[in-house]
């Protein structure tokens, strides 16, 4: 048995060196692992309300976002893991935090600060679509694969560390899951947000509205902690505006910006049902 283990060890060491030299997108975690990680991270967050305070204001806000925006995006046939991942959304009550994030397995979190800053349902749909894309494309566990490397791969294969998932989940809350996203991850998440929204009633370029507003208000270069936090996990806002505009033009869709209105922007609905109800 020991000989077989060492044979597996040598094979996977060789395979790993090939994977890491040729393909930075290799992911040693299964989709079931993503779900387990997400469940455990969500539980850890809920047990730490001082850092991750759940929004307990007007319940109609979360209900409206979930039914009118989140669920409509999830209905897109381009979202392939909707029956695998445990897709759900939670609001975190930090009025100065302009951010949203996803953890593995379909768990999404949106800060109330972001809700108070946005101006339309299309803008929020763009953000939510982007975070769903991070979960769908499994960017977090790809980054963790790169971080942990061969040691975790061997632990799974040899069965010598059955608590590895629990250990990794615990580490997520001290920063691992929120390592700076790569430029390619962010561009891919924007691309898929665009694709998802094409199957909805929302303007498909809404993912860029937040960046356009920050740019026009001079916030992208701000030293405020809330902006720094967002930019550290969502890099290259100016380039991402340009990329989204290119996608719109290639699809023959009118290029609109964050100040635009229309039947696919839903500005009044957003103010009435979301922003004006946030305490």
Describe this structure in words.
- By secondary structure, this protein is mainly alpha-helical.
- 56% of the residues lie in helices and 5% in strands.
- It is built from 13 helices and three strands.
- The chain has helices spanning 2-22, 31-46, 59-74, 112-117, 121-136, 139-148, 150-158, 164-172, 183-197, 209-216, 225-233, 237-250, 267-273, and strands spanning 88-92, 100-103, 107-111.
- A three-stranded mixed β-sheet has the order 1-3-2.
- α3 packs across α5, α5 (121-136) packs across α9 (183-197) and α10 packs across α12.
- The radius of gyration is 20 Å and the shape is globular.
Structure keywords:
3 strands; 3-stranded mixed beta sheet; 5% strand; 279 residues
Main beta sheet, described?
Answer: 3 strands, mixed
Radius of gyration: 20 Å
Shape: globular
Number of DSSP E strands: 3
Helix segment tally: 13
Mean pLDDT: 83
Kindly report the spatial arrangement of strands forming the biggest sheet.
1-3-2
Please identify the structural class as seen in this structure: mainly alpha
- Termini, distance in Å? 62 Å
- Helical fraction: 55-70%
Work out the strand percent: 5-15%
């Amino acid at each position: 048995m020991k000989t077989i283990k060492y044979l597996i060890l040598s094979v996977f060491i060789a395979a790993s060196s090939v994977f890491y030299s040729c393909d930075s997108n290799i992911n040693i975690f299964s989709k079931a692992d993503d779900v387990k990680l997400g469940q455990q991270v969500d539980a850890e967050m809920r047990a730490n309300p001082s850092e991750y305070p759940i929004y307990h204001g007007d319940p109609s806000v979360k209900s409206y976002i979930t039914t009118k925006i989140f669920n409509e995006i999830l209905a897109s046939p381009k979202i392939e893991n909707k029956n695998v991942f445990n897709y759900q959304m939670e609001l975190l009550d930090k009025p100065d935090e302009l951010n949203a994030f996803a953890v593995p397995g379909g768990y999404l979190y949106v800060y109330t600060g972001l809700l108070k800053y946005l101006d339309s349902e299309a803008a929020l749909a763009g953000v939510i679509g982007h975070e769903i894309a991070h979960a769908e494309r499994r960017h977090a566990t790809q980054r963790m694969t790169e971080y942990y490397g061969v040691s975790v791969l061997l632990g799974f294969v040899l069965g010598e560390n059955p608590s590895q998932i629990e250990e990794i989940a615990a580490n997520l809350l001290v920063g691992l899951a929120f390592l700076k996203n790569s430029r390619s991850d962010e561009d891919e998440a924007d691309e898929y947000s665009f694709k998802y929204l094409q199957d909805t009633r929302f303007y498909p370029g809404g993912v860029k509205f937040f960046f356009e507003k920050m740019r026009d208000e001079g916030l992208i270069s701000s030293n405020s902690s809330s902006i720094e936090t967002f930019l550290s996990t969502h890099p290259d806002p100016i380039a991402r505006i340009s990329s989204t505009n290119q996608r719109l033009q290639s699809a023959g869709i009118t290029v609109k910006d964050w100040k635009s209105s229309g039947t696919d922007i839903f500005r009044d609905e957003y103010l009435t049902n979301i922003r004006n109800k946030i305490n």
